[in-house]
Design brief:
single chain, 220 residues, alpha/beta, Rossmann fold, 6-stranded mixed beta sheet, 4-stranded antiparallel beta sheet, 6 helices, globular
Length: 220
Amino acid sequence: MKTLLELIDINKTYKMGEVKLEVLKHVDLKIKKGELVALIGSSGSGKSTLLNILGCLDRPSAGKVYIDGKDTSKLTDDELAIIRGKKIGFIFQFFYLLPNLTALENVELPMMFADKKDKQKRAKDLMKLVGLEHRMTHYPTQMSGGEQQRVAIARALANEPEIILADEPTGNLDSKNGKEIMNILYKLNKQGITLLIVTHDKSISGNIDRKVYLKDGEII
């Protein structure tokens, strides 16, 4: 299988005055096309920082990040934004839906930046895909946490990404809604989308191809 994401000797250090905080240390990771990988670690282990680097939202202090064979260290911020828009979909623990937009408008939003045609039709199709065709005109405040996360998944799919990066996608949900969200993600992976799920839940199970454990900024 083709390697879609690759990290080589990644380090990330934050400077706080004269103090240096090492968040990631010599991380190597390969994720192949079609894989479903769980990145597991406790709070403060560096999971979210690693996810941000994989998603081109942050740059490492040292090391190389390759997306679909392309060395991202040689790309400008604008070029990285294009890669994010075309290849990567993001799902976050706190949903990050815009409260003044309807569910349907939230799903349409990434397509506006990508200048896609038939935005509303695709947004409606995606709302149906996540089982929310009856909630298209509702605002986030009128929806449950589980429904908001479904909208967030639909939004992540808007530009037909190859890769979805999910940061604690069930962290704010009860067990029933959490299970339903995971089932949607499993189905997307079966359809060919490469999926990385970041979680602190060591008991995560299901159709996971690989579990990667992160502790104190290192893969163990």
